[in-house]
Amino acid sequence: MELRYRRRVQLVGGSTLTVSIPKEWARRAGVEPGTELVLEVLPDGSLRIIPPGRAVERGEDLAVVKVGRDRDVNTVVREVISYYLAGYKAIKIEFDTVDESFVQRVIALVQSTVMGLEVLDEDRSSVTLHSVIDTEFMDTWSAVKRLMRVAASMLDDLLRAMGSYDRKLLENIVRRDNLVDKLYLLVVKQITKSLLGLDTSSPITPPEAIHVVMAAKSVERVADHATGMAKALLEVGSSPSIPSEYLEILNRALEVFRTSCRSLAEMNRQLAMEVAKMVDELKRREKEVRQRLEVSDPTLRMLMEGVRRVLAYSIDIAEAVLDITALRSRLGR
After folding, report:
1. Is the pTM value of this prediction over 0.70?
2. Phi and psi, residue 6, nearest 5°
3. Do 257 and 307 contact (CB within 8 A), yes or no?
4. In the structure, what pLDDT confidence band is assigned to residue 135 with cuts at 50, 70 and 90?
5. 164 Cβ contact list (under 8 Å, min separation 6)
6. Which of the residue ranges 42-46, 185-189, 286-290 would you say has the lowest mean pLDDT?
7. What are the C-alpha distances in Å from 111 to residues 34, 115, 179, 240, 256?
């Protein structure tokens, strides 16, 4: 059963605020007069009191991945990434029984998938990757905003590339999907660290965290659809003939997505509600045009499906904003 104590803050000496601690807790924790306690500020602004011998050792914060002959590259990569997402500062790969080239393939795949893991220690039987990106370089909200900018630019370039079939621009869209994935995983990692109390500087409270991750995932999915459409056009080798009515819908879908991203960046409840209205109107328009055109071109049908997905994810982002702002209102923020 969870124990709760109430204590009134006292003013001592004219400038010092103090609060007493429960005697029973102090006895069980071995706290006596003169004992030094650690006070940790948690992401939601509350304090955690850590008694002697219980303080969290931050130190190297090391995870170890042992690689044997029964392991395959992809499985090892997934394990390394799981420790990255758990917020470990260092991940040591031990490989006594496999060739070093195996580990180098693992490292190459990991570094192409996540952001900020670099080899900073190595010997004949192990390689240690260190996380070199901290919140001072890019905090969680900065990562979310950059994720949204890249995804929006991919959609924008997709529309440009369709007009004149710009193959280089389409290839660039496909390449940028890797950056989007890295930014999304960085967001997940930093929010995990915040929830674990490893990052007390995050402005995202634990109740908000799930909604931020869900919104970031929706942005990442929009980028996936832009990438899928770009790949389809590259395979076909040309752009389909797009009716002017549907080209207008494509442009308005991009506007809706940008608006949903702006509502998240600004945490603007009014904008989020506007997105819902824009989506409802555009979905009706898209359905009307699609039924009238009777499209047979498979590439154009795929683009139409992509538009519907972008609108659905835009709604998900807007709903995350509504959820977060409702939480902040309840907490008086």
Report:
1. yes
2. -110, 130
3. no
4. low
5. 239
6. 42-46
7. 48, 7, 11, 36, 33
